[in-house]
Amino acid sequence: MWNCPYSNELFSLFAEEIDADDLSGSPSCGMLAEVSRSRKVTLVGGSIPERFGSHLYSTCCVFGSNGKLRARHRKVHLFDVDIPGQLTFKESATLTAGDELTIVDTDVGLLGIGICHDIRFPELAILCAERGADVICYLAAFEMNTGPLFWEVLQKARALDNQLYVATCSPARDLTINHAAWGHSTVVGPFGEILATTGHEEAVVFADIDYAYIREVRLRLQLEKQKRKDMYQLVCVSNCIRHI
């Protein structure tokens, strides 16, 4: 939610309508489209509150190097938490959960997209990997309670279990606001190794993504062949895949 304060009371006020053919209703997406076009980069644009009819979503838009909207991921798993004396928040009080997995073919490979709490659920990452994703990008604002406990280990787990890259982006930390972010944007390799990271300050993180290395790792440890599909299977409900 980079274009607004993280607050149920304010999501509606800052919500934008996102139309792939006409971004005039979304100044945030218009800016991202212009940046991706002018810099000729693929841009995974964090999340903003999206208004669609009577619903509000936490939505991440992906833009191609030509500035065109390539994909839109609506956060699937809403963050409802109640830790007595520490943190109480219910996204479901205002937001609607998305109901599609997002995998997008870009100039830099096949990307899976997740938003914040989506990283807690391995099923989403497994489905991305099974459908060819080379990298899963998670945009997240883990806060000061959950960040130290879960942020790094979840990234490593999603990458290691699925033998792919995980790239995460967090806001920098601002202790003057209610929802201060843990920070630590990171890139993790398919063996669960941290390739690049930062602290909680504003920074740019650079890492090389080697798709040949993914194939090498999967040849060394052929986990997909070793799965006992005669004992267990992950079923994707019909029409749950947004594959662009």
Features:
alpha+beta, 6 helices, 244 residues, seven-stranded mixed β-sheet, single chain, four-stranded antiparallel β-sheet, 25% helix, globular
Percent strand: 25-35%
Query: How would you classify the quaternary structure?
Result: single chain
Number of strands: 13
Helical region count? 6
Radius of gyration: 18 Å
N-to-C span: 23 Å
Mean pLDDT: 93
Could you estimate the helical fraction of the residues in percent?
10-25%
Structural class: alpha+beta
Q: Secondary-structure element order, as H and E? A: HHEEEEEEEEHEHEEEHHE
Molecular shape: globular
Main sheet characteristics: 7 strands, mixed
Catalogue the unreliable spans: none
Major sheet strand order: 12-11-10-9-8-7-13
Structure characterization notes:
- This protein is α+β, with helices and mostly antiparallel strands and 244 residues long.
- It has helices at residues 8-14, 27-39, 122-130, 146-162, 211-220, 223-226, and strands spanning 43-44, 48-52, 55-63, 69-74, 80-83, 87-90, 101-106, 109-115, 135-139, 165-169, 186-188, 194-197, 241-243.
- The strands form three sheets. A seven-stranded mixed β-sheet has the order 12-11-10-9-8-7-13, with helices on one face.
- Helix 4 links the parallel strand 9 and strand 10 (165-169).
- It is globular and about 50 Å long.
- The protein starts with 7 loop residues before the first helix and ends with a strand.
